[in-house]
Specification:
It is a single chain. The protein is elongated, with a radius of gyration of 22 Å. The strands form 2 sheets. It has a 5-stranded parallel β-sheet, with helices on both faces. The chain has a two-stranded antiparallel ribbon with strand order 6-7. Helix 1 links the parallel strand 1 and strand 2. Helix 5 crosses helix 7 and helix 7 packs antiparallel against helix 8. The chain starts with 13 loop residues before the first strand and ends in a 5-residue tail after the last helix. By secondary structure, the chain is α/β, with parallel strands linked by helices. The protein has 9 helices and 7 strands, in the order E-H-E-H-E-E-H-E-E-E-H-H-H-H-H-H. The chain is 44% helix and 14% strand. It has 3 domains: 102 residues, 3-Layer(aba) Sandwich (Rossmann fold); 31 residues; 69 residues, no CATH class.
Length: 225
């Protein structure tokens, strides 16, 4: 089966994670970090330090009890992360009946979505999936991407978030704006950010930005280079 790649917004969404072992904990943290408004965690074992730390985070509630079907009420997605394969399968079946997205960690074919491996640099997210055919290859590609894409990409996107409204405010039109942003991507700006070279970054922005924005360059680069 070929999966449809997409990025899903969790803003204002409620999510359920059943099972808070090592993998389940990672899932809970990633859901919270991506803006889920509420994450309900069900775990039967006695809490350890990691589980107690979860309980202290706003928006995350941990309940030490068995899963019940009513736990799916109002949920946008669920993750079945228990060591009980039959329970995970039951959760997936209930999610299908309710139209709730479901990921089953030990049997992805039972669920409706998989969570790809990813490389994150600020607002840049690169996802990798082999549809489960070769986790080893996924890890190799992830390592290659980690080496290839450094923190300068996070800094570049922070810079673009500051610059974009300024450029659009000039009213140059879509064609001119697109050409400007392409020129910045193709410039030595990424190199300047990687080297923490403020002079080079300033020179690149001066060369590519309209003169009306030159006075903003120090502000645009503040804390970046």
């Amino acid at each position: 089966m070929r999966c449809y790649p997409m990025f899903v917004s969790l803003e204002g969404r409620a999510c359920l994670v059943v099972g808070a072992g090592q993998v389940g904990l990672r899932k809970v943290l990633s859901l919270a970090d991506c803006g889920a408004s509420r994450v309900l965690v069900l775990e039967r074992r006695e809490p350890d330090d990691a589980l107690r730390a979860l309980e202290a985070r706003p928006g995350i509630s941990v309940e030490r009890r068995e899963f019940e079907e009513s736990d799916l009420d109002g949920m946008f997605l669920a993750i079945a992360a228990t060591s009980d394969a039959a329970l995970n399968k039951r959760i997936a079946a209930l999610c299908r009946a309710r139209g709730v997205l479901c990921n089953v960690i030990d049997a992805p074919e039972e669920g409706s979505f998989i969570v790809p491996s990813s490389v994150v640099r600020g607002d840049l997210t690169i996802a990798i999936s082999t549809d489960g055919h070769s986790p080893a290859l996924t890890k190799r590609i992830r390592k290659d991407l980690q080496d290839r894409f450094g923190e300068e990409y996070a800094q570049f996107l922070r810079l673009m978030s500051r610059l974009r409204p300024c450029v659009l405010g000039l009213g140059l039109g879509t064609g001119a704006n697109s050409a400007l942003f392409r020129s910045l991507v193709g410039s030595r700006l990424l190199e300047a950010l990687r080297l923490n070279d403020g002079l080079l970054a300033t020179a690149e922005l001066t060369a590519h930005l309209p003169r009306e924005l030159h006075h903003l360059i120090p502000e645009l680069l503040d804390g970046l280079a």
